[in-house]
Amino acid sequence: MILLDGKKTSSDIKDELRKEVDELVSSGVKKPHLAAILVGSNGASETYVGAKVKACEQVGFDSTLVRFNEDVSELDLLNEINKINNNKNIDGLIVQLPLPNHIDELKVTQAINVEKDVDGFHPTNIGRMALNLSTYLPATPAGIMELLSRYNIKTSSKHCVVVGRSHIVGSPMSILMARNNTPGNCTVTLTHSRTKNLKEITRTADILIVALGKAQFINSEMIKDGACIIDVGINRVKSEKTKSGWKLLGDVDFDSVANMCSSITPVPGGVGPMTIAMLLKNTLKSAKNKCY
Description:
- By secondary structure, this protein is of the alpha/beta class.
- The chain has two domains: 28-113, Leucine Dehydrogenase, chain A, domain 1 (Rossmann fold, 3-Layer(aba) Sandwich); 139-272, Rossmann fold (3-Layer(aba) Sandwich), CATH 3.40.50.720.
- It is built from ten helices and eleven strands.
- A six-stranded parallel sheet has the order 1-11-8-7-5-6.
- A hairpin with a 7-residue loop joins strand 9 and strand 10 (246-249).
- The longest helix is centred in the N-terminal third of the chain and has 21 residues, at 6-26.
- The protein is globular.
């Protein structure tokens, strides 16, 4: 069984990005600049944004973090997005999700300048992805594709089953894995909460991508021998064995399937670090686009 080490791979990517940034700066180009907006004080969101800011420092980016209280109005948030859209010194903008219930996430996503949408969530960028045109790919799916590529996982003519149909992971993964690319060229089955006979379907998967949000949902009875498993889930559950009283579990029961699969991503240390690496890669791409 091969462990698809997202932590190491993301570190390699950040080293590569750092070299590119150094070359850009040496040629007289300003550092890439990523801005993040954080609303409220959600613990997970604080952790994610903090990791992104730290990653920017590691690769030589400038970064800006804008904080709003939980009760910020939708109008004030949209005004801040418009302000950053018009700031020529900022190359990428992310708004950390989830947002409070009184704010329309779709409206916020659509308000971000397409050229600064380094999360890859804007409908225009999603459409360009579907048409296999140059764009900013959603960071988590892009990270998964990068892992598959760097570990030389064969995808052509394979059956890929995606569990979960979110706009952030499941849906774009199904598109990317079916595209006439490498990785890609899979026959893809997209499953979700209304899918019947899910167990029978997942057991046919050569590549199983799970983004469901249910801790250890997938077990050994739901996979076939030799499958490649990509676990996107990050579930915070109580634990008496850790100092914090919590631990992170994936959507896959790792211990149950480890002896059956050919390769698998761990949680933590698998897809999560790759998401941040691809966010940085998109931001560098945005900065370089301004140079041409």
